[in-house]
Amino acid sequence: xxxxxxxxxxxxxxxxxxxxxxxxxxxxxxxxxxxxxxxxxxxxxxxxxxxxxxxxxxxxxxxxxxxxxxxxxxxxxxxxxxxxxxxxxxxxxxxxxxxxxxxxxxxxxxxxxxxxxxxxxxxxxxxxxxxxxxxxxxxxxxxxxxxxxxxxxxxxxxxxxxxxxxxxxxxxxxxxxxxxxxxxxxxxxxxxxxxxxxxxxxxxxxxxxxxxxxxxxxxxxxxxxxxxxxxxxxxxxxxxxxxxxxxxxxxxxxxxxxxxxxxxxxxxxxxxxxxxxxxxxxxxxxxxxxxxxxxxxxxxxxxxxxxxxxxxxxxxxxxxxxxxxxxxxxxxxxxxxxxxxxxxxxxxxxxxxxxxxxxxxxxxxxxxxxxxxxxxxxxxxxxxxxxxxxxxxxxxxxxxxxxxxxxxxxxxxxxxxxxxxxxxxxxxxxxxxxxxxxxxxxxxxxxxxxxxxxxxxxxxxxxxxxxxxxxxxxxxxxxxxxxxxx
Length: 486
What we know:
By secondary structure, this protein is an alpha+beta fold.
């Protein structure tokens, strides 16, 4: 089964267990001119062969009906709702996603009289406007089962498929709607959007400028002294504070091949005009990622090189790879396993080159206005040459980030990162191992000014607690950036 078909079937099943919506999807009943009937929908499949297997496996009479682009396995009709509900309980012992559908068959041509404030179509449209697309799709689907000629429901159905990123199915629906005068223009616009997504090459450029402030650039400790073996050392507790300008550029290119995708990017971040001399920073990163989708799984292999300079002098460069296996659980939830490999070359001092490797787990949740992302990472650092007590270590990191759309185009974000650095070698003078525990708190505000421009404010508080005082520090950093996408 293809990815698009699998996702479509997932949507059809999503609210199968909720009796609450069964009556809401029904056509309005006129008690004097309509007759109710009920049946159980057992399964919906894109293959007649699989539908027949389900039908033959049941121990009660079933029928197979074709509904536009899939096959439904349904039970016999019931005249009484109580009988249908009792039958549904039995069916759900084996078919847990079965649900009850109510039909009202008109016995006369006279128009029925509405006895409720809103129609099923209005309820479904309200779900669509509130971005509850999966629920809306299920409602539009049932409306079209009862009334296949409902043109408004057909248009909403196609638009909802597009919102759920089921582009192939949406294209088929919009192609049909091109023949309908009332939907022709809107269908044409959506088909243009789908065609644009089908392009093989994608380009994007994001440029940002801004300003920042850091109250402890050099990471000086708050502690006055450090006991180092037989010596008591006096720490420099005067923090270097600095304001600076920001200039960043991101160039991205995506290529869609028949069996895999290639994404490449170039990113540079620069801190300029520091009020504290000797802190101008330049960071460059080039990466390329190969990805392949397997239904609900995606395999992604990014590799890259980054380069760091301080006042035009090379500090370090890194070769890295971060392969990732992503699993899309549903439209709201996705999880990923990833590995880390980093080959570091340090230039500002001798014998500081190292290799780090490890992996972790990430989970992402997106629902309406809320985006949540958390991860757990383990990374091992090993020196390349002579033993270094300040390099060999194990790092465990926990990250939790969230973003909420408070208003239209206005987002609030927050997060926390906790790092546990455990160094592996004893300091020969101190006689014990160094341990650092770092906590970083994040807060952000983002406002989309136009379809292409965004303003972002980000503040961070870092607290590094170490069993060696000289490495114990706190710092605060805030930045304001204006970003424009070409």
